[in-house]
Design brief:
The protein has about 350 residues and is an alpha/beta fold. The chain is built from 12 helices and 11 strands. The longest helix is centred in the C-terminal third of the chain and has 18 residues. The protein is globular.
């Protein structure tokens, strides 16, 4: 007698919602990002026992409490190191690193750089609201020049970082951008990040309605977004503003062209996710000179740190076993020891 295998019920978004009270300010953009992440987890059917959310310090770093999975709320800026160790030791896990513009690019800039260059197979959501929200409104590494905050009452004299350009400078193998209120586009980007093998860096514009309300309104408000956002699709021409405008190259610089009067989409630059030189141009396109690129900026395949490290461990163990039984005590007291008198 044969028995049919028991089919597990499909997981829903609700299954990824924890029983914790969400302690973000009413109207915070993090609610929308959390909701889209939980929706994508359900669409992908990631087993909750294999899902881990790792965070540092900041408002967005409350994420692990609100996802019904495993999670680590680590220390300021060090989430990439914890996530690297976790993925390396347990490569079967789906590791999502949630961080903010301050956590990832200030105290954690060094750690973010290394997780990207190493290409650890995990997803990084950098939630960018251009402010330190948890500590009540100081300027952050992405705050615009001249920004007046509690810590810069006369206006910031710092030049802001460009997260996507930073990630590409670290040779990140996947770089993308979305916005908290762009629900469908955000889900598309999160799915693409999950499907990528390697470190997937996703910048998400987010609104802190308490300490930096309207930070991105000049780009994402419904009345202007068509003119100021460039939604990218691999293999498609860069057309925006309802098909009225496009981007093409003039030498090594992008330029805006008005379509019509002999100019069509065929005259526009075609997006190629695999071209690192094009990605470098897109990462530096910013408003008001250009529309801001949204979607997958760059994607390429290269070996991952966790896979190569585990391959080396297998080889090293096999080589050691070939010499005879492994004796830990003999290793500890072997020739490479010193006695200090």
């Amino acid at each position: 007698m044969t028995t049919e295998p028991v089919q597990k019920p499909l997981l829903t978004k609700k299954d990824y919602m924890s029983d914790q009270i969400i302690r973000w300010c009413p109207g915070c953009g993090d609610y929308a990002i959390l909701a889209q992440a939980q929706t994508v987890f359900a669409e992908l059917q990631i087993p909750r026992e294999n899902l881990v959310v790792v965070s540092g310090i900041g408002c967005s770093s409350r994420f692990p409490y609100y996802v019904s999975s495993y999670g680590f709320h680590t220390i300021h800026g060090r989430a990439p190191t914890v996530a690297t160790g976790l993925k390396t030791v347990n490569p079967e896990l789906s590791v999502w690193l949630v961080t903010g513009d301050g956590d990832a690019l200030s105290i954690g800039g060094n750690h973010t750089a290394h997780v990207l260059r190493r290409n650890v197979d995990l997803q990084i959501l950098l939630i960018n609201n251009r402010i330190y929200g948890l500590t009540k409104g100081q300027y952050s590494p992405t705050s615009e020049h001249g920004k007046k905050t509690k810590s810069t009452p006369l206006g910031s004299v710092d030049h802001p970082m460009m997260p996507l350009a930073f990630a590409l400078g670290c040779d990140a193998s996947f770089v993308a951008r979305s916005v908290d209120i762009f629900t469908k586009d955000q889900r598309d980007v999160l799915r693409a990040a999950y499907e990528h093998r390697g470190a997937a860096f996703v910048e998400i514009y987010q609104n802190c309605n308490i300490f930096n309300d309207g930070a991105w309104d000049q780009l994402v408000d419904k009345t202007v977004r068509d003119e100021r956002c460039l939604f990218l699709t691999h293999g498609k021409p860069m057309v925006y503003a309802g098909g009225k405008k496009g981007i093409r190259l003039q030498g090594l610089r992008p330029t805006i062209i008005e379509l019509g009067d002999g100019l069509t989409a065929d005259d526009c630059l075609v997006h190629d996710e695999t071209d690192p030189y094009l990605a470098a141009i897109l990462a530096r396109m910013d408003y008001p000179e250009f529309p801001v690129p949204m979607g997958v900026i760059h994607r390429k395949e290269r070996p991952t740190f966790d896979a190569e490290m585990n391959e080396q461990l297998v080889e090293a163990k096999a080589a050691a076993e070939a010499k005879g039984p492994i004796d830990l005590q003999a290793l500890v007291t072997g020739r490479e020891t010193w006695t200090v008198g």
